[in-house]
Amino acid sequence: MKSALLPLVLAISAGAAFAEGPIEGNEVFNFQSQLTRAEVQAQVAPAYKADVIARGEASEGQDQATVVASNLSVAQVRAEAAEAYRLGLVAQGEILPVPTAAQVEQVRLAGVRAVQGNAVAQGAAATVAN
Questions:
Q1: What is the DSSP letter of 118?
Q2: Under a CB-based contact definition with an 8 Å cutoff, are residues 122 and 73 in contact?
Q3: What is the DSSP annotation of 76-112?
Q4: What is the pLDDT of residues 16-70, one digit of tens each?
Q5: Is the pTM of this model over 0.70?
């Protein structure tokens, strides 16, 4: 009987020990500001105007870093995206696949084929039109 009660007593006491600790982030709920809402907004306004405060997950300078000039055609981009998807190289959720050199080349060649096929199709249309 005593051997059956010992695990039960240990389990209950362990649960009580965990219940006594603070909840992560609980200090946020107990914070009492000494400033009014208007005073905080007045302090933050210059920072927003200077674009020092990040919005969302963006960080300073990130907006310029994401702008990329491209000389690829729409057909080439679509063909490369379709090939990358076919090869399983498109991120799904938190899984970020890392392509091999051969896969990168396959994606590039799919884009090249799309441009060449588009040029051949345009040339054939011009020949028929004449």
A1: H
A2: no
A3: HHHHHHHHHHHTT-S-BTTB-----HHHHHHHHHHHH
A4: 555 555 556 555 566 677 888 888 888 888 877 777 776 666 555 555 555 667 8
A5: no
